[in-house]
Design brief:
The structure is a homodimer.
Chain A lengths: L15 E7 L8 E6 L2 E5 L15 E3 L3 H4 L5 E6 L4 H4 L2 H7 L5 E3 L1 H13 L7 E3 L4 E4 L2 E8 L6 E8 L2 E5 L17 H10 L3 E5 L15 H11 L4 E4 L5 H13 L3 E5 L1 H12 L13 H4 L7 E5 L9 H6 L12 E4 L8 H13 L3 E4 L13 H11 L3 E5 L3 H13 L14 E6 L2 E7 L5 E4 L2 E2 L4 H13 L1 E8 L6 E10 L12 H13 L5 H20 L4 E8 L1
Parallel strand pairs in A: 3-5, 5-6, 6-7, 11-12, 12-18, 13-15, 13-16, 14-15, 16-17, 23-25
Antiparallel strand pairs in A: 1-2, 1-19, 2-3, 4-21, 8-9, 9-10, 10-11, 19-20, 21-22, 23-24
Helix pairs in contact in A: 6-7, 12-13, 15-16
Chain lengths: ~550, ~550
């Protein structure tokens, strides 16, 4: 199912227009706009990480095109929590207009602020909220605590005269969270009694049956593994997972070990979390990693980044003996993290490298050292039943996740026509408790590559894929512009094709013959001559080598 | 641990020299040589499939370098079973010498023969064996039935005066296999009593605790899913998995449906399996897929390739509506297969595409529709205990699998110094029941790309990785060879770098200035001028775009 591109009717008075800009049909770059009475509220503004068919790309941004001409109408950006897929694109949005107000919880905005400083964006406007109401333009906002794999996450209820919308952000329903801050089902119940007209709900784990185990179940496993270890322990996890790090610190402390943070983002985030009181560290526990090397091996736990096998992160560099800490015989490495699809080979290469160095590697596949941050099917059913929303828009997920989530809604009695499967750019109008699809925007991918934002296009990525699979052959000929006579060349150079350019010796006379024939026929046009070269060598390479490298002919007139 | 390259001593009389050429530290291209008394026996000769850091490569072969000068000494190649990672490189070996005798079971050699015909290799020499003894040169061979995810798999016992070696090939210990052909533990017991001096054992699942469930457990699930389906059913699996296909045929037949094979390798392999009696098809069950389209939707099961998301295979093409069979609302797709690490994104893209078309996708993550073909830790313990081998060489696996397997051996009481962790090219000499590492060969990767074997090198792959991540910028300048004056250019062309070459307008004057300065200083050498261009534009691109494309300068004299 894909909705054909169609411009919507102008927004009628009294209607709320909801447009997911990113995060539908993908895991990442979450962003939704809410428009009422000429004003726009944005919920989340995250990045998407590229897959292997988007080579060389650093980040993918939401397509800001639909709001670029409306920047002055934006009354605020609500950030539900501090993960990259919800806040990562904020600096790029603020490059367009730096005084758009940012609204979120304390930890979320502290992480956003660190990001704005790195991007040298100022001034900026922050509004810290926590479980309170806030009027932002025509939007009456209420913030509701939810539990997730980062502290201080919130859902947001958005009231306008058109009705009540509730966006969960990312969440799960751990009933025994480390910080005691559960997803506030009482508020969900209250909102349900008031009447939720549109429920935007996290779909990431909608196809996972049952319930996500409690984060607390990991603590004893960490404790046991650390207790058994005779030498150094290195734990890798996400640098924003404050509760996971808390459990590592607690287990280290219980076993008489100190903790050193490794990796720029781990150090930065944990400093922020500690300053704001989200991370509790017993006295005399933290130690700088440079000093940690003087401790006996059984007195230290390193807490590091790199759990996804990222080649430049600490753990990969350790596995390659390219880091000051060199793992060895008897060390224990714990990957206390998920394995994000697409990263398997990279992660297994790191595990193999560490094993080869003599380390014992503990990971998700051989011990309970990770639980997910997202509500599984069983938890989502609780939400549907307590809220009984009139309309449901599954968000945050690939298509199969959105479909699975819609089916759960239908299982609780919500009619199929009230569960909306949309994509990025699907425009949903809410009025009198009725949500209808009012149009479909054309939403693209905006690639960040180096310092370039949007300068690298899908056509460039297609070129990169061809170059990366097949390499290229360039053929340069200098011709006399009046006679068409070859002055110099053809010079043939290839990269990524063959060990030695002499493989092309056979085709050179063919190119010369083809160009002479063309010259004899009076062909002088550079483009036409280039095409003749392309065809001649292209056909030869396909037949002789059975390959299809990029052919780059260049005819220079002199 | 890696063993430094070291040439071995010449092979002493009465010693068996065992050299794994491929399959250690990797999953694939399994191949081991056994040398005794000047003669060489090869066990298996498979291919490895490339990972994402080997872009554009079709296949990776074992490095035949160590045997290239010894072709006349090879007395035979034993093929333990018909999977690509054990037979796929046979045609490439036979290109070196086509009359090397091939020894294997009926199905294995039938699959090899199909391959040799495709490669137009003839004549060739086949010896079909099954649970019998065979003298091949100085090697006294005994073939032992093992159970695996393809019928007719065998282990091979190799007796020489130096001792008894047993190579399992790939195997598991399903106690209720579909064809009743269990791994022959009685023979293992007998060999154990005789005394196994060296045990070469499949490590693929050594790090998986417990026991692989029986293939038989999948049948009822398939039956249930097909019974519930109101419309078409499409099952994807490996084209060599005869028993999986058998169960699909049985479930289809039980539900009054006919079966059509889709995909070239599926059709070919199942034709061979049926002809040789490995696949039993009830009368009037198979139907050509073109005719199947005339059947009612609830009367057909398509059995297809493409379970790993391979872009050119049937299932991917169906998901892209690029196949004669177009899945739609209410159809059921079953992925009755494993998910090989590295293929996750491709497979999930196919699942998403099919879901989007309205199909219900059943796969490993939501139903028991796959079991592994390899012995898990529990099964391996049985083998060690019944064989009590003197020396163990874990094979077929990444380093972590080899390590896990060695630890299992040690758990059953085999001393650590008798469990050998080797790599490709590790030379192991067996004499008087003692196995020792005698040397280490330098083993490379041999890439097949198009019609080229070995012509694409690691340097080419490095170029491809740079090109694929960053693209390239080529700069062509035509200069007067005597004065150094620029006659034409610089012409700058880039691919995969930026939407528009005009981004380089700023750097053109810098290049001209640099070349003029060089000309003024009397620099005439093409290479030196190229380096000046490379530095000038390279520095500019790094600073301006924060990227590192391949820079390809070319100075032409005219």
């Amino acid at each position: 199912m894909s909705i054909p591109i169609a411009a919507p009717e102008p927004l009628a008075q009294g209607t709320l227009r909801v447009t997911p800009i990113g995060g539908l049909g993908e895991i990442g770059r979450n962003m939704t706009t809410f428009e009422f009475d000429g004003k726009i509220l944005i919920v989340d503004c995250g990045v998407l990480f590229p897959e292997e068919h988007q080579p060389g790309v650093d980040l993918i941004l939401p397509d800001f095109e639909p709001i670029k001409s409306r920047l002055d109408d934006i009354v605020g950006v609500v950030l539900t929590h501090g993960h990259e897929d919800h806040i990562g694109a904020v600096p790029y949005l603020l490059r367009l207009k730096n005084d758009i107000p940012l609204i979120g919880s304390g930890l979320t905005l502290a992480l956003v602020e660190a990001k704005l400083k790195e991007h040298r964006i100022k001034p900026y406007t922050l509004t810290v909220v926590e479980g309170q109401k806030e009027q932002v333009g025509p939007f009456d906002l209420e913030f509701i605590a939810v539990n997730h794999s980062i502290p201080d996450a919130m859902a947001v209820a958005i009231r306008t005269p058109a009705g009540l919308a509730l966006a969960t952000g990312d969440f799960k329903m751990d009933q025994l969270p480390l910080d005691g801050r559960i997803t506030d089902l009482r508020s969900f119940a209250r909102l349900g009694e008031e009447g939720v007209d549109l429920f935007l709900v996290d779909s990431t784990n909608a196809d996972v049956p049952g319930f996500t185990p409690t984060e607390r179940s990991i603590g004893p496993v960490l404790d046991q593994v650390i207790a058994k270890s005779q030498r150094r322990v290195i734990v890798a996890s996400f640098s924003s997972h404050v509760h996971r790090v808390q459990q590592v610190i607690d287990a280290a402390h219980a076993n008489g070990r100190r903790v050193a943070f490794l990796g720029r983002s781990m150090v930065r985030n944990m400093t922020i979390a500690q300053q704001l009181g989200y991370l509790t560290v017993p006295d005399n526990t933290l130690i700088d990693y440079k000093k940690a090397r003087d401790l006996p091996d059984d007195k230290i736990v390193y807490m590091s980044t790199g759990s996804q096998g990222e080649p430049m992160a600490v753990l990969s560099r350790m596995a390659n003996l390219d880091h000051a800490i060199e793992p060895g015989e008897g060390d224990t490495i714990i990957l206390a993290s998920s394995l994000i699809p697409g990263n398997e080979n990279a992660v297994y290469r790191v595990i193999d490298g560490l094993t080869r160095l003599g380390a014992n590697v503990v990971h998700k596949a051989n011990a309970r050292v990770h639980v997910s941050g997202h509500a599984a099917a069983g938890e989502l059913l609780y939400c549907y039943n307590i809220l009984k929303p009139k309309n449901v828009l599954p968000v945050h997920g690939e298509y199969r996740h959105l479909m699975a989530n819609a089916k759960l809604a239908q299982d609780t009695g919500i009619p199929e026509e009230r569960t909306i499967i949309g994509g990025n750019g699907t425009i949903i109008d809410l009025r009198d408790g009725e949500a209808t699809i009012a149009g479909q925007l054309d939403i693209g991918f905006v690639y960040v590559d180096g310092s370039t934002v949007g300068g690298v296009t899908d056509a460039d990525l297609k070129d990169r894929r061809i170059l990366g699979e097949e390499g290229f052959v360039s053929i340069i000929v200098v011709v006399d512009s009046s006679t068409g006579r070859i002055i110099s060349g053809p010079e043939i150079h290839a990269r990524g094709v063959a060990e030695d350019d002499s493989v092309f010796d056979d085709v050179t006379p063919k190119i010369i013959a083809a160009l002479k024939e063309a010259a004899g026929n009076g062909v002088r046009d550079n483009h036409a001559l280039s095409q003749i070269i392309r065809r001649t060598i292209g056909r030869w390479v396909n037949q002789k080598l059975r390959r299809r490298p990029m052919i780059v002919p260049l005819v220079i007139e002199a």
